[in-house]
Amino acid sequence: MLDIRNYIIGINTVTIGNIKSCIVNPREVFKPALIAGASSDILVHNHPTGDPYPSPDDLNLTDKLKRAGDILEIKVLDHIIVTDSNYISLSDKGQI
User: Does domain 1-96 have CATH number 3.40.140.10?
Assistant: First the structure.
């Protein structure tokens, strides 16, 4: 979560999934941001397989969270997918 100047004001773990999936609800993502008065969010999740490339589900979730953030006036700046040795920024890829 970031303030108006893009300074980090908090980090929140929303959910912990299993090896195959993770349930993410927009209300659980944005609730801490609303309480903290965040202006924007950067989303991060891992791919334990080691492949950082976004799945169709990742892209759909990113779009859903971006739309929810737009409604709440909390901008989603990026969605980063990390592995043990690599990462991908969806913003850098033009997918945000």
Answer: yes
Question: Quick check: helix, strand or coil at residue 39?
Answer: coil
H-assigned helices in 1-96: 26-36, 56-72
In this structure, the strands spanning 40-46 and 75-82 are parallel
Q: How many residues does the chain have?
A: 96
SS3 call for 28: helix
Q: Where are the domains of the chain?
A: 1-96
Per residue in 38-86, pLDDT (tens digit) is 999 999 999 988 999 999 999 999 999 999 999 999 999 999 999 999 9
- Strand-pair partners of 81: 45, 88
Q: What is the pLDDT of residue 74?
A: 98
- CA atoms of 95 and 5, how far apart (whole Å): 23
pTM: 0.89
